[in-house]
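Hi,

I'm pasting everything inline rather than attaching a file, because the server keeps stripping attachments. The sequence lines come first, and each chain or strand is labelled.
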Amino acid sequence: MFDLDNRSVLVTGGSKGIGRGIATVFARAGANVAVAARSSADLDACVADLDSLGSGKVIGVVTDVSDRRACDELAAAALEAFGGLDVVCANAGIFPDAPLATMTPEQLTEIFAVNVNGTFFAVQACLDALIASGSGRVILTSSITGPITGYPGWSHYGATKSAQLGFMRTAAIELAPHKITVNAILPGNIMSEGMIENGDEYIASMAKSIPAGALGTPEDIGHLAAFLATKEAGYITGQAIAVDGGQVLPESLDAIVT
Ligand code: NAP
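And the predicted assembly:
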C-alpha cells in the first residue's frame, strides 16, 4: 500500500543520527536518496552503507544548509542524479548548550542560521522540483523542545524549533495548490550521535522521563517520515506530530508506571 519506489528524496543532515535514520528507511523502501551534510568523510561512509539497502540510487552532497547557494547546488545535484525530486526532509540541525545569562549574539545567530535559515533554504532550493513532482512533500525535523517543552540551556534551540512550525503553517497554505504537503515531526529524545554528546547522565535522566522506558531510535523518526512521504498521506498537511514514546504526557516523574 505505501509505495516509495520511484520516489526521490533529499535529506539534509542525512549522514548521521536522525537524518541517517530517515535516509535508511527511504533507501530500504527503494527510494532514490540524496544525503547532505558538511563532512565529506561521514557522507562517504553513509552512502556506502545506504547503497546496499535498496534498489534506488544514493548520492552524498557536501552542503552547509546555512548557505543558500550551497542548497541550490544540492538540489541541482539531486535533480541531475534522479531526474526529479519528490520529497525534501529538512532535518539538519544543531543543539549546542547556551544558558541565557551567558549566550552570545554569535551563538544565537549560528543556531538560527542552521536550524531556521537552513530549513528555508533547503525547501526553497527544491521548490520547483517539488511542484513538478505533482505530489511533493516537505518534512521538517522540529522537536518537542520549544513547541511543547523546555530545557535549561536550550532557549535559543527551542526558539528555532518553534520557528520551524511557524514556517510550516504558512508554507503548507502557500504550497497546497501544488499538491505539496508540509508537515513537521517532533522527536522526543532519540539516540543519535548528537545525543551521545549530551553525556550518559543526561541520557539516563531522559530515559526515566519517558513512559516507553527508553530513548527512541533514528529509524523511529524515519518511519513517520516515510509515511508522510507517501501519496496516501496527501491529505495531511500543516501538522506537527510528536514521536517521543509518550515523553510529553506525564505530569510528573511519579506519573510514570514502571
Ligand atoms: P546529529 O546526530 O548531530 O546529526 C546532525 C546531522 O546534521 C549530521 O549529519 C550533521 O553533519 C548535519 N549538520 C549539522 N549542521 C549542518 C549544516 N550546517 N549543514 C548541513 N548539515 C549539517 O543530530 P540529530 O540528533 O540527529 O538531530 C537531527 C535533527 O533532529 C536536528 O534538527 C535536531 O534539532 C532534531 N532533533 C533531535 C533530537 C534528538 O533527540 N536527537 C530530538 C529532537 C529533535 P555535519 O556535522 O557533517 O554537517
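Residues 8-246 form a domain with the Rossmann fold fold (CATH 3.40.50.720).

If the labels don't parse on your end, tell me and I'll reformat.
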